[in-house]
Write a structure and sequence with these properties.
The protein has about 675 residues and is mainly alpha-helical. It is built from 26 helices and 5 strands.
């Protein structure tokens, strides 16, 4: 039996050797290798052309797909279709791209490996992102990242993480965007990938911009542009130029914004990217609207709609309709304005983009107010305020500051660990010998101590359990009280706040009708102003009652947000000098409220009495405490005004009441400087 089995194996071996050495079989293998090499070359060409010329990328991807289909090569077919779909998504064929990707999942489901699934999920994530379907985009990017990480393709996972962070940022989830961007940046830093580093900088600039830190965002975007230019990455150059233009626009420097938007437009045309071209047209329309060149603004808005026709880019379309509504409102063509704004609102609702919905509601309120439709104006204004309250607050400054120094400290730690490694090994050998001796002694002593302590531990456990029950009951009572206070304050805000808002609105309407005598006009204006102040105070009360909000970080963020919003309506520029690193301190409700109310009172006095054109706010956190400086370039202190008060005694009493110091004096430039100093031990919850 053994002899026969050996003969069988020998014959099988000889047959295989013959087949492998046969000229026809060798020729077939060589043909397959050449064919695969040709397909891979076309796929690499398509990938490179994605960042240079989309038409060339599409041609290479289709040629690769044709050859791969003839060769029945599933994985290469999938790569080619994914590349083709990405090009389509950027050139007004997003729905076709999505259909192709869905067909891939159906047709090749049983034959795909993990890498192919990851390619499909990544392509679908990008397509849904361009279609403004952010929830679907997040799901697909997360699946792609998970697979790329599992198969060890960390660099590709880094690129998809970067794009996922942009999806989070676009959908208003700033905190998630920061967390994901940190992971992406770490991968690019470890791999020394220049494209990845440039994308990380660009993303960081967008995060800074979302927090209104426009000067810092501009600096980071310019650094990103330098890297993209060094590697001849046309798509990266174009997007960096758009983002730089946005930063200049937000800083109200329209000429610089126009310059960069036009540069980006030129590069997007070279690239053949319809989505990017439409974004540039929309931004140019926005700048010309600010410059009050309304016909130019209409021209570029219409170019935007023409460019994206058939692409189903709902976010671009809705913001463009909203912009046209604003333009026709300026032209007093209110019928057209309402039509465009309603179109914009419908599209924004279909993709649940809250920021655009809020902007549409504000614009509709202004148009209805202009045509004396006060009920519709009031309803839309109220809806806009409700949406504003639901948007995520911008309070992540500390995390952003940590992004820059986090990886440097990790590198230093690695070097330090390497230098200390030999010393640690020697010390471990010595300590191991000593531990063996100590272990024997410890076992003997521990046995005795355990017996003695066992009873004591049982007693302590019993007492701790009783104490825990008492503390838990107290905590439940405290939480219940907190919830009831917050519920009461919210009910008060909903019932009384809505009424006060309506009083303010109707008072303003009554004054604008010119139907009152001067004395009555002054009284009605006083009613309007008082009702607005009460609404703001109730909103601040609700914020303060929530224990999660009364932190030093949120106080700094709240001061910045209030000052920006309040002074925006007046002809004053405001300059902030706030710390990037804020200690993680929980403040008492009293100190939080008194400091914030004092800042509000101070800004109110500046608006009413100073005639200033520039306000500077400086916050410092030093050993002596939390310090706020508010400086204006107005007419300075007037003796009669000081004698009448102007709230100075009220502000002084507020700060002294929480253990701080309040001072006011003349500024060297002629204005007024206010200083608030509160020791740290007086700020925190005792």
């Amino acid at each position: 039996m053994s002899y026969r089995k050996g003969v069988k194996y020998l014959i099988l071996f000889l047959v295989l050797m013959f087949l492998n050495s046969h000229p026809g079989n060798s020729q077939a293998n060589n043909s397959t290798v050449l064919l695969n090499s040709r397909i891979d070359s076309l796929l690499r060409s398509a990938e490179n052309s994605l960042n240079k010329n989309l038409a060339e990328a599409l041609l290479s991807a289709r040629n690769a797909k044709r050859i791969a289909i003839n060769a029945s090569d599933t994985n290469r077919i999938i790569r080619a279709v994914c590349l083709e779909s990405i090009v389509k998504a950027r050139t007004n064929q997003s729905n076709s791209a999505l259909s192709n990707l869905t067909n891939l999942e159906t047709d090749f489901k049983a034959r795909m490996d993990s890498a192919s699934w990851a390619e499909i999920f990544a392509a679908k994530g990008m397509t849904y992102y361009l279609l403004s379907s952010f929830d679907s985009s997040k799901v697909n990017f997360e699946k792609a990242i998970h697979i790329f990480q599992n198969i060890g393709n960390q660099l590709r996972a880094g690129f998809e993480l970067n794009q996922l962070a942009r999806v989070y940022l676009r959908s208003g989830e700033s905190k998630n965007a920061i967390t994901v961007s940190e992971e992406s940046s770490r991968i690019f830093e470890n791999s020394a990938n220049m494209e990845g580093r440039a994308l990380s900088l660009d993303l960081k600039g967008e995060i800074l911009k979302s927090q209104r830190l426009y000067d810092k965002a501009l600096e980071v975007h310019q650094a990103s542009l330098v890297i993209f230019k060094s590697i001849h990455h046309l798509a990266g150059i174009a997007i960096s130029e758009v983002h730089i233009g946005n930063a200049w626009y937000m800083n109200a420097i329209d000429d610089s914004a126009l310059l960069y938007y036009n540069r980006a437009l030129k590069n997007y045309r070279l690239l053949g990217d319809s989505n990017g071209i439409a974004i540039c047209y929309a931004n140019l329309s926005r700048v010309f609207l600010e410059k009050n060149e309304l016909q130019q603004s209409i021209y570029f808005a219409n170019l935007t709609l023409t460019t994206i026709q058939g692409g189903d880019y709902k976010l671009i379309e809705s913001t463009t309709f909203q912009q046209l509504g604003d333009i026709y409102g300026e032209l007093e063509q209110y019928g057209k304005a309402i039509i465009f704004l309603n179109k914009a609102l419908d599209l924004a609702n279909s993709i649940n983009h809250k920021t655009t919905i809020m902007d549409c509601r504000k614009s509709l309120s202004e148009v209805f107010y202009s045509i004396r439709n006060t009920d519709s104006a009031y309803i839309n204004l109220l809806e806009a305020y409700h949406l504003k309250d639901t948007l995520q607050p911008l309070a992540y400054t500390r995390q952003l500051a940590e992004l820059q120094d986090k990886y440097e400290s990790e590198k230093q730690q690695v070097v330090l660990n390497s230098l200390q490694q030999n010393d640690r090994i020697k010390s471990l050998e010595i300590s191991d010998q000593q531990n063996q001796i100590n272990r024997r002694n410890t076992i003997i002593i521990s046995g005795v101590i355990i017996v003695l302590l066992l009873g004591f531990v049982i007693y302590l456990a019993t007492q701790r359990q009783k104490l825990a029950l008492v503390l838990e009951k107290a905590a439940v009572v405290k939480r219940t009280e907190e919830k009831e206070r917050i519920r009461f304050a919210r009910d008060l805000h909903d019932d009384v706040g809505s009424g006060l808002s309506k009083i303010s609105f109707l008072s303003s309407l009554l004054v604008s009708s010119n139907a009152l005598s001067p004395s009555n006009t002054e009284k009605v204006l006083s009613i309007s102003e008082t009702s607005k102040d009460l609404v703001d105070n109730m909103r601040d009360l609700i914020w303060t009652l929530n224990p999660e909000n009364t932190t030093l970080e949120n106080l700094v963020a709240r001061i910045r947000e209030f000052a920006s919003d309040y002074l925006e309506e007046f002809p004053m520029n405001i300059q902030f000098d706030f710390p990037e690193h804020t200690p993680d301190l929980v403040l008492s409700k009293e100190s939080y409220r008194e400091i914030f109310m004092t800042v509000k009172e101070c800004l109110n006095n500046i608006v009413k009495h100073s005639q200033a054109t520039m306000v500077s706010m400086l916050i410092e956190i030093k050993n002596e405490g939390f310090i706020v400086h508010i400086i204006d370039n107005g007419i300075g202190l007037i003796v009669n005004e000081v004698a009448r008060g102007n709230g100075i005694s009220n502000m002084t009493n507020r700060i002294i009441g929480i253990g701080g110091e309040f001072s006011i004096g003349k500024n060297s430039s002629g204005g007024v400087i206010v200083c608030i100093l509160v020791p740290v031990d007086k700020l925190v919850v005792s």
